[in-house]
Design a protein that fits this description.
mainly alpha; single chain
Length: 68
């Protein structure tokens, strides 16, 4: 995950935590979703990196698509 996206997620988490309008259950559910998105993003990055290792040609295709 890029540093910018990570910073955005941290800001979201902080603001959810500070919210007086959300119940503790809503906060907890929000945190769970954020953690899931983070894990999925990490898994996607690992997948892309592994694909790129297969061949320079695959890496070039991924770069052309803007994935790396």
């Amino acid at each position: 995950m890029s540093n910018s996206n990570l910073k955005h997620l941290e800001r979201i988490k902080e603001n959810i935590d500070k919210s007086t309008e959300l119940t503790e259950e809503e906060k907890s559910n929000s945190f769970k979703h954020i953690e899931e998105w983070y894990a999925e993003d990490q898994a996607w990055g690992t997948f892309i990196n592994e694909l790129a290792k297969i061949s320079p040609k695959v890496e070039a295709i991924l770069a052309e698509l803007g994935l790396i």
